[in-house]
Amino acid sequence: KVETSDENSREDFDFSNGQHVIGYVINVGDEWARLAISRLVKGDLFVLDTSTDPSELQEFQKRFRPGQPLSCYILSINKDKRRLRLGLTDVVRQLDDKRGGSDMNQDLFGRIREGDIIGGKITEVLPGVGGLVIQISPH
């Protein structure tokens, strides 16, 4: 039997949240690095998922170069687009360990609870109410 590319692509996309993967940097933008996980699967590494150190976040574009291998963890999965959202730390497992386990089918944002400490970027200061808008994800 000869496999078609459709059959092959379905079989290649077997990932789970929190899974460790190795990817190779394809390109780097202001807030994203695109990685090749396999011939058919790509991953997106958002700047806030690379570090909690502000100086490292400011140097995002300088820290990664095309062809560089990266050890990453899957934060969420988009099967339709065959795309993985990646992070450099196993934040999924850290949140699960804190709570004594979780459903591995649930992505990062299904695991965040009130009181969790996670990284973010201040995108707006609300001076009249003493508040902040903090970005914790790309959307």
UniProtKB/TrEMBL annotation:
<protein>
    <recommendedName>
        <fullName>S1 motif domain-containing protein</fullName>
    </recommendedName>
</protein>
<feature type="domain" description="S1 motif">
    <location>
        <begin position="18"/>
        <end position="89"/>
    </location>
</feature>
<dbReference type="GO" id="GO:0003723">
    <property type="term" value="F:RNA binding"/>
</dbReference>
<dbReference type="InterPro" id="IPR012340">
    <property type="entry name" value="NA-bd_OB-fold"/>
</dbReference>
<dbReference type="GO" id="GO:0006364">
    <property type="term" value="P:rRNA processing"/>
</dbReference>
<dbReference type="InterPro" id="IPR003029">
    <property type="entry name" value="S1_domain"/>
</dbReference>
<dbReference type="InterPro" id="IPR045209">
    <property type="entry name" value="Rrp5"/>
</dbReference>
<dbReference type="GO" id="GO:0032040">
    <property type="term" value="C:small-subunit processome"/>
</dbReference>
